[in-house]
Amino acid sequence: EAGVTQFPSHSVIEKGQTVTLRCDPISGHDNLYWYRRVMGKEIKFLLHFVKESKQDESGMPNNRFLAERTGGTYSTLKVQPAELEDSGVYFCASSHGLAGNQETQYFGPGTRLLVL
Amino acid sequence: GENVEQHPSTLSVQEGDSAVIKCTYSDSASNYFPWYKQELGKRPQLIIDIRSNVGEKKDQRIAVTLNKTAKHFSLHITETQPEDSAVYFCAASTYTTSGTYKYIFGTGTRLKVLA
How far apart are the CA of B98 and the nearest CA of chain A, in angstroms? Predict the structure, then answer.
């Protein structure tokens, strides 16, 4: 079974530019999560999709961040315009989605974003 | 809001010794506690987890203990080996008002096992 994949693995952009990160969850997983880790700090929750619906976006920093999951498969996270403080590692995770159960989340390798 | 405190931030042990990483959570409704290991350049991977109806769980050299009253949980690695060197993250899972579960992570512990 293929794991969660993310693209790109690294991205270096200038302040004010736009970057789009992509996550492909494990096939059949309804739940998809985005997280971010800033250097030395916790892995912080950004948002949660169930299929194509945003269930919880309480962790999104501001309206410069836009996440989509059209069709309930892969997801994109766009940062526009990027600021210096957006630098960090963005992780995606997925879980199956059996109703009412707390399930293991499987993580992707992350996208390391550096905003200069 | 909810938070998870994790200590220590770095830990160096001699090969063969034990390592203990401790976490404290704030939300008494948390009911699932996974531990992830992230090796350099790799993805975080689940190594062990514990649910709130269990006080201890063991898997070979790794064990996790949970004290619900104190809201503490700990990871214990015995007979450490160089390949145990990694960053370890604890997390507490809480049921949200939107009807889903959310992980709150600790800040990570960088474990170095010295050969």
Answer: 6
